Amino acid sequence: MNFVALRMLTGDRAKYFGLVFAIAFCTFLLENQTSIFANILRRTASQILDVTDAEVWIMDPKTEYWDQTKALKDTDLTRVRGVAGVGWAVRLFKGNPVARTSTGKFAASFLIGLDDATLAGAPRQMQMGSWERLREPDSVVIDKAGYVLLFPKEPLRLDRTLEMNDHMVRIVGISDASPPFASLPVMHTRYSEAVGFVGRERTQLSFLIAQPAAGVTPKELTARIEKQTGLRARTTREFMWDCVRYYLRNTGIPVNFGITIGVALVVGTVVAGQTFYLFTVDNLKQFGALKAIGVTNLRLTGMILLQAFSVGALGFAIGTGMAASFFELTLHKLATRHIVLMWQCVGITGAAIFFVVIVASVLSIRRVLVLEPAAVFQG
Amino acid sequence: MESNGHAISCHDVQKHYGEGETRIDALRGVDFDARFGELSFLVGPSGCGKTTLLCVIAGLLDRTGGDLTVLGQSLDGLADRDRVLFRRKNLGFVFQQYNLLPALTAAENVAVPLLAAEVPRKEALDRAKALLSRLGLEKRVQALPSKLSGGQQQRVALARALVHEPRIVVCDEPTAALDHATGEAVMELLASNAVQPDRAVVVVTHDSRVFHHAHSIARMDDGKIVDVTRPNGSVVEGVGEVDSFQKEAAL
Question: How many CB atoms lie within 10 A of CB B114?
Answer without folding.
Answer: 22
